[in-house]
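Annotators were shown the component list below and the corresponding predicted structure, then asked to write short factual statements about the assembly.
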Amino acid sequence: MAVTEPETLKKEQPKTLHIEMPRRAFLLKLGFILNGIAAMFVSVPVLGYVLSSFRTEGPFKSWIALGPVESFPENQTRLAKYRNPYTRPWDGPTANIPCWVRRVQGEKFQIFAINCTHLGCPVRWFQESHLFMCPCHGGAFYEDGSHASGPPPRGLYEYKYKIENGQLWVYGGQLPTLNQSA
Amino acid sequence: MIERLTRIALWIDERVYISKLFAATAGHSVPRTSGSWFYVFGSGTLVCFMIQIVTGICLALVYVPSASEAYSSLEYLNYQQQLGWFLRAMHNWGSNFMVAIMLAHLIQVFLFGAFKYPREMTWISGVVLLLCTLGMAFTGQVLRFDQDAYWGLGIGAAMAGRVPLMGPAIVHMMLGGPIIAGETLSRFFTLHVFVIPGTIIAIVSLHLRLVLTKGINDYPVPGKLVNKETYIEEYEEELKKDGVPFFPKAISKDMIFSGLVLLGIVGCAAYFGPAGPRGVPDPSLINTAPKPDFFFLWLYGVLSLMPDYLETVLMLTAPFIVIGILFAVPFISNTGEKSPRRRPLAVLSVLFIFIVLGVFNYLGTFAPWSPHMEAWTSAATPVNYLEGRSPLERQGALVFHNKQCVNCHSLGGAGGLRGPTLDNVATRLTGDQLVRQVIQGSGNMPAYGKNLNPSEVTALVAFMRTLHSPTESPARDSTRSEQAAAEKTPAKALAQTGEMQE
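Structure shown to annotators:
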């Protein structure tokens, strides 16, 4: 304000001009600085809150029991489901995570993520042709999870597993993507 | 009484300057030529947006943005809330109309050279509005929290997950956690209801302000070139000479079009009803074939048909290149000819883009690239492919279904279109070639060597050797006599017998 009206100021209050100008400029500067500091104090927690979900490390994965080993016959591939270990009370049905369990022989298993490696659609197992087929863009995988045909860039994602006290355990909790397997 | 009301009105107007605002906005002067049927799409889009705000607020009164409750609240809206189905249908059709009319607006503005000097920022703000609207369409599809929404998010996550290094972090940010769950829906709700609509309102204000300050584009005349030195002067002269106030002179066509749009939305909503929700968003219900909404079908096609070696690169760069080109349009061609009659390249680009998108969208409606997951238990084999065939050949027809071949290969129009249709495969491949193709696979076909025993292969190939029209004979290996080939292996002999019976 003061900068745009020096002439009127000069006419009306010639004496106070020299005192007024630096004071107003100082107040303006102070206003900027103060708000800058305040903005920092406001934005740091806001950004920290919003960006916290960038963190991919956390207590997301854990061992989950899929049931007794005997419930998975040898040479067969079966759908198993588990409740995602890292859930919110309002997750509802979305935390019911399926996976394909293939018991190769004895204690040798393969546990595949449901998600196609192309774009994440749910692959379906066909016992008769021993293939996993994806309903979205036409990917197909052999029974050992390797790529058979179509656009997927790699074989199915495999979970880690262990057998303890006669139970099959899967190490799950994370949606697998190309740069972060199950 | 009337006098008193008038005085009150004048008092209010004196305080809030409504009439001055009206004179400066709706009453502003526009070239008479811009009162054209081609100029109605912008206001049409705005009307759709208003419908979306009204119906959206109504839906938010009932909808619960919680992963565990969203689905049942949509069902409640459909079946229990009075007129809930109609509001959902209006919101859905309002969205379809908004995208469609916005595209018409985009094409019109592009073809009429309205993006040229001095309206570059009008175009750029319009591109931002286009992106926001597509963002609304996608996030809205997520709020209809069903199986398609769930797997649509999965596809989004899988694409974002391909970003080198940052991929997992971006996926985490997008989903609000390690999996698609409660927080995912909450953040898409926030985007759909607060962030993007807020942005749209702000940018629409800028867009309209620019229409006022830079003036609406004058109807292009072939040979009338845009020149930076003279354009503004010429435009103002035209306004003085042949300008009319937007209200009430130029607005009539906008009003008629807007009325038709509103009636269209209401009519479609009443006739077609609401969309979905289709299936509880439970990922463990895996018997689903996710499909995007109409305006993203082309993307579905592109993602299926891209060559796989280009896929990641294209997925991560193409959106930015396309958006970059859209933003760059006013700088690529800033002055000169405006009329589409003198800009063949512009017309051809529009035709090319719409033919390409149209074809992909058309393909997306029946998705030939997806196997038909249920075909092996539901598709019928045409009777004449079985009539008069030997037991072995009929056995082959069974193998063809049992081993899910029909999920990818159709017979008589039934079955998948992922692989070539096999109605006349016998004329394309010899018995030997069929055996090899089945056992080893190739191209897009998996190898069935491990999953078929020799007798199944024999039967399957015998069946396929019968698949040709009566007027064409099956393919033969010309380097060998049929007799010699028949003697070599029993499998081929059997196949051969099948052939000879015809």
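Statements collected:
1. The longest helix of chain B spans residues 182-214.
2. Confidence is low (pLDDT under 50) at residues 496-502 of chain B.
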